[in-house]
Amino acid sequence: MRALPILLTLLLACGWFGGKKITDETVANYIKAYVRLKQVGPELAERMKNAQGKEIEIDQGMAGYKEIEKIIKESGFESYQEFVEVNAKIGLAFSQIEGRQFMNEMDQMHSIGFEEIDKQLSDPQVPEEAKAELRRARKEIAENMDKNKPWAEGVMKGAEMIGDKETMEVVRRHAREIRD
C-alpha cells in the first residue's frame, strides 16, 4: 500500500500530470540549490546523528528544515515540494542521458573487443589452444550482451515513456554542470 503514494508522486513529478516545466533557468536554479544543500547537508546530518537516542527538540528539527527551505526558496523555487518535483524530473532525464551514454560506451568497447579477438583468431601465429580460449571468451561476451542489452533497452524505453523530450534536451545542455 505504501508503493501507491510513491508511484503517484513519481508520476506527478515526472510530468505525466503536469508540474513545473524544466527550462534552462530551472536547471540553473536547481544546480544553485543543490550546491548549497550539499554544503549544509553534512552539518545537518551530523546534528541529527548526535541527537540519535536522545530526545530531539522539535525546534532543532524545524530549524534544519527551515534552513533547507530557505536555500531552496533563495535559489528560485516556490517551495520544498516544487524543488522535489524538479529534482525528480531532472534526475530522471539525467539518468537517461548517463544510462544511454554508458550503453553506447559499452557497445563501443564490445565492438573494439570483438575486433581484437577476431584479429587474434585470424592470426596464423596464434596457437590453436589460445584461439579456443578466445572463441570461448567471445561467445561468453556475446551471450552476456544478448541477455543483458534487451533488459537495459527496456529500462531506457520505460524511462523515456515517463519523461519528456523537452526536459531531456534542457538537461542534456546542462549535463556537465549537473555532473560536477
Describe the protein's topology.
Blueprint: H1 3-13, H2 24-51, H3 58-74, H4 80-122, H5 128-162, H6 165-173, H7 175-179
Q: State the total count of DSSP E strands.
A: 0
Detail the poorly predicted runs.
Answer: 13-17
Nearest-integer average pLDDT = 85
H/E series: HHHHHHH
Strand residue percentage: under 5%
Structural class, from secondary structure content?
A: mainly alpha
Q: State Rg.
A: 24 Å
Number of helices: 7
From the spread of the alpha carbons, the general shape counts as elongated
Share of helix, binned? over 70%
How far apart are the termini? Answer: 37 Å
Largest sheet: none
How would you briefly describe this protein structure?
This protein has 180 residues and is mostly helical. It has helices at 3-13, 24-51, 58-74, 80-122, 128-162, 165-173, 175-179.
Task: Describe the overall structure.
The structure is a single chain. The chain has 180 residues and is an all-alpha fold. The longest helix has 43 residues.
